[in-house]
Here is the input.
Amino acid sequence: MSRLDGKIALISGAASGIGRETAALMAKAGAKVVVGDVSDERGQQTVGAINAADGQSEYVHLDVTKQEDWTAAVNLAISKFGKLDILVNNAGVFIGKGIEEISLDEWSRLVAVNMTGVFLGTRIAVPALRESAKSSEHGSAIVNLASIAGIVGSQLDPLYSMTKGGVTLFTKSAALEFGRKGYRIRVNSIHPGVILTEMGEQTFVARAQRTGSNDTTTARQIVTDSVPWGRMGVPMDIAKGIVFLASDDAGYMNGAGLIVDGGMTAA
Here is the structure.
């Protein structure tokens, strides 16, 4: 029996990077997966790859800042697969600007995706998750993508850090609220370090620009040298952690944060 046999999962931002890797790994572990993203072409490619590998998945256009998109995504999971057991709030954006440099529009977008998107996904998925939890020994699960920037301060990206800190405490508070209400929905967060994705590349660009250079090689090497394990992370490193938190193997984890950073925050 595979780790997620019989489970139905909805993943936001699943067309690329960590989300895509998570969707594929969940399908391999036995789950049926709804892939949500604003990038329709890449989202369809993700679904095509999963289904070609004998998985079961469906794509839905999902702008995490819009209630109606979340409602449609949850409804698709229920209409196509019968229920919803797992929500992964993965979608996020990175804007590598400081407190004095960022525009109000940029700040509003950072908050809308990284924080409002997590809130909306959670709120709209709760009824379906609560219902599926009734027939599961370990309940249903929400996994929120936070960051090590949501645990420790960031001298380079304080506003991104602020949004991920919000996700970190929202995770704990949602776990407590749902526990108090008897919903049996476990809520945990995962905290990646710098991962080799498109967003990870954006951090290198931002750091290079701060030094007046467009050369990301030095910035990438500085980050690599700061990881005690000796390498930067890849999407699969995080996907494995998400699958664990979503599975019954993590049945007694609630309101917790799983750090997957190669040791960066251990110092």
About this structure: The two ends are 39 Å apart (CA to CA). The mean pLDDT is 94.
